[in-house]
Fold:
Amino acid sequence: MTRSFSLLMLASLALQGCMFSPGQHLSTFGITRQGASESSRVELIPITPKLISMNRATQKRESVPTELLATPAEYRIGNNDVLYITVWDHPELTAPSGAQQQIDANGRLVRSDGTLYYPYIKEVQAAGRTIQQLRDDIEQRLSAFIAEPQVDVAVLRFASQKVVVTGAVAKAGPQAISTNPLSVVEALGSAGIDTNNADLSGLLLTRNGRVYPLNLDTLNQQDSELQNVYLQGGDKLYLPYNDNKRIYVMGEVNQPRALSFKTATMNLSDVLGSVGGLSQTTANGNAVYVIRGVENLDVEPAKIYQLEAESPTAMVLATHFEVRPQDVVYVGPANVTRWNRLISQLVPSASIVGTGASAAKNWSEFTNNSK
Structure:
């Protein structure tokens, strides 16, 4: 009787275990295959060479707006710039404070109204002019006092034209534009990119109230146009952080976790490799899924892409399948894994049932002997 009771309880637990197997797993029962029904909310799509080819055909090569590729203009002097004006053979004009003084002491500040003061000719309009234009003007006006003056103009300190770099960089703040054009790549290089936390694909350039999205990832492409984007005074560069762009890797992998998206693209092989690959003892190689949601599930179905990764050739497809931010990569357990987990939960329960049955038997024998 006791044995029958124990077997009955074990059978009941086993039946419940079959109905509610422990652990997380993805069942594709009831999910619509690609192209089967437009009313389904979830669509299961096998990752095949044809799918890879179709995705590549729809991808557009990222290009830089034409207006950002203009040849950088010649530097124009501005307010707060400090100039060093040399008049050859006339040290009293070149270095009025004395040649023994530091060169900055003999600099000429461009005032807030755009002018500077110079001996003999007094007020000179400097702001808005190129260095050559200012030099020619000073030569022409000095010629009334000096025979054939030879004038040279150099900028000691660039202060009028600046760009601001912020975001995921080591040295955020302003950078001055000089007579050497400053490119986007050089500005970010000077600021120092925080490679662990930066979203390289989300760079934003703000110019004259308009925001231009740029992708630093394109620098890896041959003949990248981003190399030819030069900054202007007043430009703002913002390199966002990647904390809002993640891929969630779950299931039977060696190191399940959320991965930050550092670049514009990441393929499925990169994702699986970053978490140590599939668990060799528990994973079902044919149950590798990429789950991709949609903003409006009532209008279009969410998509689940399935890779049958038991074959080594499937990893070639994984290398060319691009995942997107907020995708969930899930690897399901093998059937034997689910069964082992079921047994591991049944054994403690069976022990409890056995203990209870033994206690019931002992109590029954005790009461019979007492009669």
About this structure: Residues 4-19 have pLDDT under 50 and may be disordered.
